[in-house]
Amino acid sequence: MSDWLLALIPQYGLILIFVATLASCLALPIPASLIMLSAGGFAASGEMELTQTAFAAFAGAIIGDISGFAIGRRGAKWLQRKGGRLSQAQELVRRRGALGVFLSRWLISPLGPYVNFAAGAAGLAWPKFVLPAFMGELLWVGLYVGLGYGFSGQVIEIARLLGNASGFLAALALTIGLGFWLRHTAHAGARNLQKTP
User: Fold this and answer.
1) Nearest-angstrom CA–CA distance, 92 and 100
2) Distance CA 80, CA 92 (A)
3) Residue ranges of the alpha helices (H) in 25-151?
4) How far apart are CA 140 and CA 89, in angstroms?
5) pLDDT tier at 151 (50, 70, 90 boundaries)?
6) What local confidence, expressed as pLDDT, does residue 129 receive?
7) pTM, 2 dp
């Protein structure tokens, strides 16, 4: 699928970049990071304009984030029954709030779409969501489009390296969250045992 999408970048350019980043922020399996890296490479070769490329990616990401937040706000009860990554994202939002939103845009980006839903479902205040999302997306887009532009000949290798690092960081964050949950559960169980006659 990635090769097919990458072949479409020169033909559909900015529209494809916009749609890809928007869709990825709604948890659709689109390789937006790879598309941004490739688009940066096309900008380096003169086939696309760098500023327009970055703006299309950023606009798609922000609209996707806001849409995910709105879906979470309106469908909170339904989303809470889904569990999985969403419940882990809710824990991140509860513990870290705005910082969790910021970090999930670029550092632990596999959780990003779920944090959008979780932030809306958890009732996170709009300014605490939109400002860190804006700043995090600026960093995400700048990082990927910039790396694609700067290292246009090695886009696939960079994508693989960043994908591995991002997956590792997401797994680490989930492991730490699970550790806190287990600790909390163990303490709650111990308190309940002490209360029982």
Assistant:
1) 6
2) 14
3) 32-44, 50-74, 76-80, 85-96, 98-106, 112-121, 126-150
4) 19
5) confident
6) 94
7) 0.73
Q: How far apart are CA 176 and CA 92, in angstroms?
A: 10
Q: Which residues touch 112 (CB under 8 Å, ≥6 apart)? A: 25, 65, 104, 105
Angle at 134 between CA 120 and CA 149, to 5 degrees: 130
Q: What's the mean pLDDT when you consider all of the chain?
A: 80
For residue 121, the model assigns a pLDDT of 85
Would you say the C-alpha torsion 165, 166, 169, 171 has a positive or negative sign? Answer: negative
pLDDT the model gives residue 123: 83
d(CA 43, CA 49): 5
Q: Which residues contact 189 (CB under 8 A, 6 or more apart)?
A: none
Tell me, what DSSP letter sits at residue 108?
A: S
- The DSSP code for 154 is G
Looking at per-residue pLDDT, the higher value among 177 and 123 belongs to: 123
